[in-house]
What we know:
heterotrimer, A: 222 residues, mainly alpha, MetI-like fold, C: 302 residues, alpha/beta, D-Maltodextrin-Binding Protein, domain 2, 2 domains, 12 helices, globular
Amino acid sequence: MLLSMDKELIQIIGVTLKMSFFSTLISCLIGMPLGVLIEKGSFFGRGLLKKLSSTLMGLPPVVAGLIVYMLFTRYGIFGSLGLLFTVEVMIVAQVMLITPVVLCLTSSVVSVSGNPLKETARGLGLKRGRTLSLFLIHNRRALLSVVLTAFGRSIAEVGAVSLVGGNIQWKTRVMTTAILLETNKGKFTFALALGIVLLIISLIVNVSASLLSKGGKDSDKM
Amino acid sequence: MIRCENTVKRYGERTVLDIKELTVNKGSSVALTGANGSGKSTLLKIIAGTTAFEGTVRASGRILYMPQKIIAFDMSVLSNVTFSLKGRKSEKEERAMAALSRVGLKELYKKNALTLSGGECARLSLARILVNDCDILLLDEPTGAVDIEGTEIIENTVREYISEKERTLIIATHSPLQAKRMADRVIMLQKGSIVEDCSPDELLKAPSTEFGKKFVDMWRY
Amino acid sequence: MKKLLALLMALALVFSFAACAGNEEETTAAADETTAVSDTTAASEEGTSDETGSKTIRMSTTTSVNDSGLLPAILPVFEQKTGYKVEVQSAGTGAAIQKAKDGNADLILVHSKASEEAFVDEGYGVERIPFMFNYFVVVGPKDDPAGIKDSENAAAAFKKISSSQQKFISRGDESGTHKAELKIWGDTAPDAANDKWYVSAGAGMGACLTMANEQKAYCLTDKATFLANKESLPELDIILAEGEDMKNTYSVIECDAEKLPGVNTAGAKALIDWLLSDEADALIAKYGEEQYGQALFTVIED
């Protein structure tokens, strides 16, 4: 079983990482600027967007999956694209789930340090771009943990991805749906082994991310 | 020169600042004083241009402003100071090191700024500001959380800096002694309006308000 | 990689043994309590856990049985008559059997002969009693692009699907239906890694049918689940029914209390006896006529 799973396991890990990476990337690209805007900007519907995003944080993954399913099903609005049961549509569902989380966490980072930092930057005569890069550098740890939270959500999600991805072998099967399948087969031990593999992947991602974030040599001496 | 006319700041219904007229001449040093919530910080923010307001404020030249809430950037002490500079790296670092040694933080240049104490933080913040050139310097209680030695370093550094060329200084403070040491003019705010505007010595002789009397009493001890 | 995974398996095994040991202790403890309680009737009000041994029967069954709606239709009659309460847990055949092996069921109702025989041979089950059957059907797009309509049996139909490379959704979850499908393929089973038309979904029957409907694909299913979901499957029809290789036999097996302490033997026996009784036979034979216009199961006569 291990022999035959070996090649497949690597493929499953590949799909898992691809899905988690792109869904994290896209939701950060959408959620982070929106998170800053929602806190700093003044535009129509800002309060509503804020409430909406914190409500959507509690959206059950299966419901998100269901909505995406309805959109991409044969009879749905995007049905003609034929994207149901592909990695792409899994990413769409994940983005829907994670973006509100990224948005809310980013806006809380901004609300904690945003104003005093902006004031200090303006006081120093920094231009907008420079102020933004100061914000990013100064809050890199907090923002990194936003990214890692998003990644963690994405890699651990099972309800939405099994619904829209279909858990198809060699195509859309990811670690979590594989674990679910092995559990349904009654191979609890093997499922648990896969679970440990998933944990190890998360650990590797977390450790390498925190190594990357260490700015100066002594930045960890707090 | 700084000139304010009918400068008003409101938060909803509440008016926190209402200044009919104020002129600060080029090269003068002004101590801004008054109780908490009297509008000192708001006035500085308005002049610095970091908050919206009604009326007109004209200020000529480059302004530097150090807010009351001091933040050390999450990076090395040296990078904190070089961050606002332009030019070659070696040149920036040379200027930054000079500024750091002036406030006595030279040895700590490699450390992450978040590891500094409150007093060191205030000195770093000052070095970060003063490494730049300016015409108008606005300081909001720069020694609010600093011990005696640190206060002396900060005051000396600021005095040195403004005397380099004809720079204008407005410093918000709760200390009458600091006002006397740093400024040739004291402006006292109460509920957003100017209630005293004179030299430190004149205020000592004839305080015209309750708060002015208390302030002067403190001065006598 | 292989070594690593083997190591992890070992680690997981240790975990699960620890968990099992814990479970066993709990179950024996619970059984002890029950005997103690039967002496002092007053104590029976204290906790619901005491009743596990006496009035509750835990049945582990496959999703296809549960999805067909048969059990909710007939079990209330048994419950009313005997005062037992039947807790039905449904999962894929593999998991259904595994749950029983872990001591979490009193009897199983499944449809995979080989797994059932292994269950009995390993000493977990007392005796395999086949009691009803139905036929698997091959469903597919209404226009039948692979032309399997008049095939002699499922094996012939599968050959046609394979040679025309029409999409086929496989359960791929080692369930009874999946095992039946693999048996029909025999040596010609496609390889999901290379044959793009063969989709191994690793999902339950309902999910696979939805996928087949979505992708206009063929699928082997039990008739009951298909009929129960037909309304939401407008693209699909039964293309081939009742080949001799499509018979689907359901059995009940009482869990062996010697191997699995804590099993409610009396309850399991009572339920099995009732399932084999004339009363239950009549209910099963009639089930489906009202709702789908045809019976879904055929009772095996002794």
